[in-house]
Amino acid sequence: MKNFICVCAITLVAFQTRTYAQNIPLPADSVTKLLCKKWQVDYVLVQGKKTNMPSSTPKVYLQFYKDGTFSITSSKPKAFEKGEWEYDAQKGAIYMSVKGKDRKSIISLTKNHFVVLADDQVAIPTDSSGIEVYFKVKPTIH
């Protein structure tokens, strides 16, 4: 239970703190194709140190949709949150918001990974570099 709370807290911090956008110079249709999948937390960098999630920790998932929305769910029942995403092609940035608040950025996006950086000093007073949350594509089971 403590592990689940830790993962959820880190994920929510990532969505409730200010992040910096990395230039993602792709056509909008390419961003949609890369992003619109189901993702899961892979690992977290805290003060530059990789932290793997214990196997007992419930999985946290992000599902992005072509209509500009996404959902945050968990392998724990009843864990659900909805948000919106948009791609600004002029700035090369992907922005996310939950409940219309706290617009955040994805700082890196590839075919198999994306990264959200949490750097708010109020939320993370001990580390000026913030927390980087790395997501990977959720494997499909056939």
Profile the largest sheet.
8 strands, antiparallel, barrel
Query: What percent strand?
Result: 35-45%
Task: State the CATH class.
Answer: Mainly Beta
Using the coordinates shown, work out and report the CATH topology. Lipocalin
β-strand number = 9
The run of helices and strands is HHEEEEEEEEE
Side-by-side strand order of the widest sheet: 1-3-4-5-6-7-8-9
First-to-last CA distance: 29 Å
Overall 3D form: globular
Rg on CA atoms, Å: 14 Å
Q: What structural class should be given to the helix and strand makeup?
A: alpha+beta
CATH architecture: Beta Barrel
Unreliable spans: 1-10, 12-21, 120-128
Outline the structure in words.
The chain contains two helices and nine strands. By secondary structure, it is an alpha+beta fold. The chain has an eight-stranded antiparallel β-barrel with strand order 1-3-4-5-6-7-8-9. The chain has a single domain (2-137), classed as Beta Barrel (Lipocalin), CATH 2.40.128.280.
